[in-house]
Each structure stands twice: as structure tokens, then as C-alpha cells.
Amino acid sequence: MMKQIFSQWHNMTEEHGRFLTAGTNYEEAQAVLLGLPMDYTVSYQPGSRFGPGAIRRASVVLEEYSPDLDGDLKDSLICDLGDLALPIGNVAAALELIGKAARQLFADGKFPIFLGGEHLVSFPVIREAYTFYPDLAVLHLDAHADLRTDYLGEPFSHATVMRKVAELIGPNCLYQLGIRSGSREEWAFGRTYTHMYPNAVLEPLQGILPELQGRPVYISLDIDVADPAFAPGTGTQEPGGCSSNELLAALRTAAALNVVGLDVVEVCPALDFGERTAILAAKLVREALIALVSRR
Asked: Global pTM?
């Protein structure tokens, strides 16, 4: 089944390498990394399709050991499948293929980490997670509300992804942290229907932990939730965000929950001078692998 779904895989081992210690074969792996190189609906700066490769390349600067978690990647069985080969320009077909791949990962009991790619790639993943976990809650870390009903007439866009998620799982199951940008209509919808926490990430997360305990939680992390000073390599920068330290602390805090999957999206290496954004994304992935996989 895996070979049938992933038959058009890009072999990223030689082109971009693999993520740190992610050398376990699929069958034995606890966690699986999968790149989703799509940026067809971006509204400003394109290039996030190259984000997964940039995150892998940047990972080599990191140690395998996390002193904050006192854990090591060597304690986890991790597989890096490379990037999904997506049809260029065909949004519907790409989303269908992403959903099919995600469905297989959930069905096989893997802990999936998806590397974006624009934020729209999260929707088919969350849709599949929801079929396996009907009481799913989504923890959305982002500068932007992403709650538009459409963007320039298009219902499927990186600007509409969380509206689609809210319509799917119910807006009361969507927790939005760090939001600081959106239209008047988006803010009205978020303030009324979702759990929206503007600007901050760590403090509101600490407050909502009790109500999320015991529920399956999917984390969708847009790298632009961090201030551009810490993460300039993203397509729609929004000043005023959290620090990289706060973001890392929030991810470690979320490890107290029953997290069933994670994505890190919107890394745009063409804008990432000094690889600050890719290195931050890689460290977030490392911390997630240690906190959410090796400690289970």
C-alpha cells in the first residue's frame, strides 16, 4: 500500500539529505516526516515549496540532544520519507494526494510530522486526522487568522485554511494562538466562534491545557507566528510576533497533551537570510520528536 500511494516520491536523500537521525525504515518507525512542497495559493511571496528541503539541510547544525528536554533523537525511531511529488498548479489534485498520504500514516499508527509548504497543506491532513479522531481539537499557532471564506474568489487558499478546518471540526474545537492579522470579518468570526488568543502563545496555551487534557490534539504551526526578527524567511511576514524562545517553550508545553500529529509550514528559504527561519523550524521539529515521540 505504501509503495502504491508514494510511488511518485522524490528521493530527497541525495538532494537535501534527511532530517538528522531519521534513518529508520518505515515499518519500524515510530515517527514519520513527510514534506509537502506546495505553494500554489500564496498571496504574497512564493517559495515555501522549498521549505521542507531547507528544514532538512538546516537540521545538520543542531545537536541530536535537547538539554531543555534532557532527551536525544537517538532514543526515537524516525523515518524521513522525503517530499511528496505534487502536481504543479493543480490545487485539488495536490490536496487529494496529501490527504491520501496522511490517511495512510494515521492508519499505520505513525506519529506524523509534515513539513510545508504553504498553510493550505494542513487542511487535507487535518481532515484525515478528524476521521480517525472524531473529538479532535486543533491547536493553531499563526500570525494570521486564516479564517476568510475565500481569497480573491478562491475558497481553498492559505488564507482560508482555518475557516475550512472550523467548518469541518466545529469552530469551538479550534484554538488559535499568536494571531495578530486578519480582516474585520475574520476577527469577528474568531472572537465569536473559535478560541482566539491574540499576540501571545505560551501564556494562553498554559491556560487552556486543562480543557484539552485527554483529547486528541493536532498542532498546526505556521512559522510566521514568530516575529520576523526571529523568522524572516516566510512569505507573509507580520511584525509583533513571539520570540523563538517563547515558541519553543510553547511546543514543549504542548507535549503535556495527547498530540496526534504536527505540521510546520510556510518556511520560505529564498527570503531566509542566514537560514534563521529554517534552523528555528528544524529545532521545533527536533523538540517535537523528542517531546512527543521518544517520551511516549
From this structure: 0.94
